[in-house]
From TrEMBL:
GO terms for molecular function: FAD binding; oxidoreductase activity. Its cofactor is FAD. Keywords: FAD, Flavoprotein, Oxidoreductase. Belongs to the FAD-binding oxidoreductase/transferase type 4 family. This is FAD/FMN-containing dehydrogenase. It holds the Pfam family FAD-oxidase_C. Residues 39-220 form the FAD-binding PCMH-type domain. It comes from the Bacteria. One of its GO terms (biological process) is respiratory electron transport chain. InterPro entries: FAD-bd_oxidored_4_C, FAD-bd_PCMH, FAD-bd_PCMH-like_sf, FAD-bd_PCMH_sub1, FAD-bd_PCMH_sub2, FAD-linked_Oxase-like_C, FAD-oxidored/transferase_4, Oxid_FAD_bind_N.
C-alpha cells in the first residue's frame, strides 16, 4: 500500500499517467537507495512526470495534501540528497523522463535542456553542433543535468570553465506551491535585481524543482595533450600549477593531484592500468592542456614547462602521452581511485576545499593529526588542485575490523573538518550536504549564514515539503 489517500493517488495518476506512477514495492526499490547502498529509505510512491506541466500539477497536489517531495535525477550523489527518509510518507519525484533538448542556439553559444537529460548525452549533443559542454565527472554516463544543478557539480574542468553555477544562464523551476518560474533566458548580462537562478543552483531541491536550464556552450577542443608528473610534495604541485598557468594560460584545463596511496589502490584493483614510472614517488599530478585550434603547439608548451620544473626540482619525473590510448590510460589512473578504494573495505569520504595556497599545510597537518589519533589509517588524497578541492578519503588500517573502523567515523570527520575550518575551507566542495553533512554544516557554518539560509527556505517553502531533512 502506498499510504496515500485514494483520492490523492487517483489525482496523481491523472497528472502523470500510468507510465509516470510507481507504487509497486519491487519496482520502487532502485529509487529508494543510492548507488553505493549507503543510504536507504521508504516512499509512498515514485512519480515520473514527463513535462514541466506534469511536475507543476504534482507539486500543487502534494502541497494541498501536505505530502513531502524528494526530487531525484540519476541518483549518483554521495551524500544521500535524493533518498527519502524511513517514514514511507514521502514521494520520490524522478525527473528522468524529462530529457528533451528544447533549443540549441549556436550563435548565442547556448543549449536549453530538460533536467532529466544525462550529462554525457548533453556533451554529445554539444559535439554534434561543433561545440563543447565542459562539465566532466566520473558519473557523467548516468548523472542528470538537474542533479548537476541541484548540487552545483564541479568535476575535472573547473580550473578552466568553472562549476555548474558558472555554466548556467537561465533556469525553469517549479516552486513549492506549484507555480512555474520561467527564467530560461540565455543572457550573459541581466542586471535587473536579484539573480534568482543562484538560489536554486546548489539548493539540492529544497527550494523548488529545476525542470530545465539554459547552459553555456564553448568552442570544441581540437588539440589536446596530457602528462603524468611525479612530485616530491603537495607544495611542488602548487608551485607547478602556478608555473603552468603563467606559461599556458587558459590552455591549462586539467591539473589533478594524487597521493601514492591513491595510485597504489588503483594499481592493485583496477584491471588494465600500469605505473607510468619504474620508481615510486610520493605524489603525482595529471596535467591536461587543450586548445580550440588544430595542431596547436601544446606538446612544446608542456615540455617547456616540465623541463623547467625538472631542472628546478619541482618535478621528479614526467611522461607525456603519445597517443589517445595513452591519454585514456593516464586518466584511468586518476578516475579509478574511488572504485579502487572500495575494494579496501569501508572508506570515509570527505570532499573539502581550502585556498590553493594552503593545500600543502592542510595535508601535512591533517595527515599528522589523523595518524596520531588513529594510527595506521590509510589516507587517500586526490583532487582538483586548481580550484582547491581535495577528496580526502580515509581507509581502515590494513587488517582492521570494519565495525571498529566505522565506529570511528564521527571522530575522524571531526579531525578533518576542524582542520578544514582552520584553513578557511569548506566541508563540501562539490558533493553537496544532502543528509550526510547536514548536521556537520550546523556546526561548521557561521550562525548568520545558517540563519540567512533558513530564512530563504522559509520564504520559498514555508510548509517544508521540498526535500525535507536535507541541507538544513
Amino acid at each position: 500500500m502506498s499510504g496515500l489517500s485514494d483520492a490523492l493517488l487517483q489525482a496523481l495518476r491523472e497528472a502523470v499517467g500510468e507510465a509516470g506512477l510507481i507504487t509497486d514495492a519491487e519496482r520502487m526499490q532502485s529509487y529508494l537507495s543510492d548507488w553505493r547502498g549507503a543510504y536507504r529509505g521508504q516512499a509512498a510512491a515514485v512519480l515520473r512526470p514527463a513535462s514541466t506541466e506534469e511536475v507543476a500539477a504534482v507539486v500543487r497536489l502534494c502541497a494541498q495534501a501536505g505530502v513531502a517531495l524528494v526530487p531525484q535525477g540519476g541518483n549518483t550523489g554521495l551524500c544521500g540528497g535524493s533518498i527519502p527518509d524511513d517514514s514511507g510518507a514521502q514521494i520520490v519525484l524522478s525527473l528522468t523522463r524529462m530529457k528533451r533538448i528544447r533549443a540549441v542556439d549556436v550563435a548565442n553559444a547556448t543549449i536549453t535542456v530538460e533536467a532529466g537529460m544525462i550529462l554525457q548525452q548533453l556533451q554529445e549533443a554539444a559535439a554534434e553542433v561543433g561545440r563543447l559542454f565542459p562539465l566532466s565527472l566520473g558519473a557523467e554516463g548516468s548523472c542528470t543535468v538537474g542533479g548537476n544543478l541541484a548540487t552545483n557539480a564541479g568535476g575535472t574542468a573547473v580550473l578552466r570553465y568553472g562549476n555548474m553555477r558558472d555554466l548556467t544562464l537561465g533556469l525553469e523551476v517549479v516552486l513549492p506551491d506549484g507555480r512555474v518560474w520561467d527564467g530560461l533566458r540565455g543572457l550573459r548580462k541581466d542586471n535587473t535585481g536579484y539573480d534568482l537562478k543562484h538560489l536554486f543552483i546548489g539548493s539540492e531541491g529544497t527550494l523548488g524543482i529545476i525542470t530545465a536550464a539554459v547552459l553555456k556552450l564553448f568552442p570544441a577542443v581540437r588539440s589536446l595533450t596530457t602528462a603524468w608528473v611525479a612530485l616530491p610534495s603537495p607544495q611542488a604541485a602548487v608551485e607547478l600549477i602556478g608555473q603552468m598557468r603563467g606559461l599556458c594560460g587558459d590552455r591549462l584545463t586539467g591539473f589533478e593531484l594524487m597521493s601514492r596511496q591513491s595510485v597504489e589502490f588503483v594499481l592493485r584493483h583496477v584491471a588494465g592500468v600500469s605505473d607510468p614510472f619504474a620508481e615510486t614517488h610520493p605524489w603525482y599530478v595529471l596535467i591536461e592542456l587543450s586548445d580550440t585550434q588544430p595542431n596547436a603547439p601544446l606538446n612544446e608548451l608542456l615540455e617547456q614547462g616540465l623541463g623547467a620544473a625538472l631542472e628546478q626540482g619541482v618535478a621528479l619525473d614526467a611522461v607525456v602521452a603519445a597517443s589517445d590510448a595513452q591519454v585514456r590510460a593516464l586518466w584511468a589512473l586518476r578516475e579509478g581511485i574511488s572504485e579502487a578504494q572500495n575494494h579496501e573495505g569501508p572508506s570515509l569520504k570527505h570532499d573539502i576545499s581550502v585556498p590553493v595556497s594552503r593545500i600543502p599545510d592542510f595535508i601535512e597537518r591533517t595527515d599528522a593529526a589523523l595518524q596520531q589519533a588513529f594510527p595506521g589509517v590509510r589516507i587517500v588524497t586526490y583532487g582538483h588542485v586548481g580550484d582547491g578541492n581535495l577528496h580526502y578519503n580515509i581507509s581502515k588500517p590494513a587488517g582492521a575490523e570494519d565495525g571498529a573502523f566505522k565506529a570511528q567515523a564521527e571522530a575522524i570527520m571531526r579531525v578533518i573538518y576542524d582542520q578544514t575550518l582552520r584553513y578557511a575551507g569548506s566541508i563540501s566542495a562539490e558533493h553537496g550536504l544532502g543528509q550526510s553533512k547536514r548536521l556537520a554544516a550546523q556546526h561548521y557554518k557561521a550562525p548568520l549564514e545558517l540563519e540567512l539560509m533558513t530564512r530563504v527556505k522559509q520564504a520559498l517553502d514555508p510548509a517544508g515539503l521540498m526535500n525535507p531533512g536535507k541541507l538544513l
